[in-house]
Design a protein that fits this description.
Number of strands: 14
Oligomer: single chain
Structural class: alpha/beta
Order of helices and strands: EHHEHEEEHEEEHEHEEHEHEHEH
Length: 267
């Protein structure tokens, strides 16, 4: 179908991108996305959050399409409330990775996201959860490894997020993928996994190519998605690493940055 809109797929990150700081989507951005889908484009949410931390937002948006969750590990059919694909972390490799990182930087504060549609997020002593998302405390290390995991979150008492991500990559980059997804959010993922992995799977299901995709994001974990898509748009509030590889920088998530670009493309 030929339309006036130049892309068939709009891929948006959630936190810091589609969502404002109060976790809402502005009326202007909702309207711009609705107009773009009316013009023939599909919208896919591509988020680091696992499904249990994403579902309520999708339901509030009335979102019925595919969503890529868990940093690319999960392709989720929001309309059917069904997981289509799910990749889990090799727990033996993850344990080796953690040991190697701690050997370099000292003890870490840990959290982990369990697999599946209803997987809990486990939070260990000292780990600071950002926002008000539901989490389950754990104290015994054995609890962490008891069930399949999507990812492990790490924090350090002194190192900044950037410093911790670099140290983790140097110590354990051969065992896990290290992603920085937001403030206080450094993650250990299955080796080779990225948002591009899940987005390419979801796009293939829709019969849409990378060359027909525009992507919006704000953090280094969006770099692979920008590399995959035809056009990558960073928010004004984005991390400098992402801005460096973006085709364009738009307004911030608080100032309807996605809508600014979509309205221009629709005009």
């Amino acid at each position: 179908m030929s339309t006036g809109f130049p892309y068939k797929l709009i891929a948006t990150d959630l936190d810091g991108t589609l969502l404002r700081s109060d976790e809402s989507v502005s009326p202007r951005t909702r309207a711009a996305l609705a107009a773009a889908t009316e013009a023939g484009a599909a919208h896919i949410v591509v988020t680091g959050r696992a499904v249990p931390w994403t579902r309520h937002i999708l339901d509030d948006l009335g979102y019925e399409g595919l969503a890529v969750c868990g940093q690319g590990a999960q392709v989720y059919d929001a309309g059917a409330h069904r997981l289509l694909t799910s990749v889990t972390l090799d727990r033996q490799l993850a344990a080796v990775a953690l040991a190697k990182i701690e050997a370099e930087v000292g003890p870490l504060y840990l959290a982990a996201s369990r697999g599946g549609l209803d997987g809990a997020v486990l939070v260990g002593p000292g780990y600071a959860v950002t926002g008000s998302l539901p989490a389950t405390p754990f104290t015994e290390a054995s609890d962490l490894w008891a069930e399949p995991l999507n990812k492990i979150y790490i924090q350090h008492p002194r190192l900044s997020d950037d410093e911790l991500a670099v140290a983790a990559r140097e110590a354990a980059g051969g065992f896990v993928t290290v992603a920085m997804a937001g403030e206080g959010i450094v993650e250990l993922l299955p080796l080779g996994l990225s948002k591009a992995t899940g987005l390419s799977l979801a796009a293939r299901r829709l019969g849409i190519k990378a060359a027909e995709t525009i992507a919006f994001g704000d953090m280094p974990n969006d770099i692979a998605m920008f590399a995959w898509a035809a056009r990558g748009v960073a928010m004004a509030n984005a991390h400098e690493e992402l801005k460096a590889v973006a085709d364009e920088v738009t307004a911030s998530n608080e100032e309807d940055g996605i809508a600014v670009v979509l309205e221009r493309l629709l005009a």
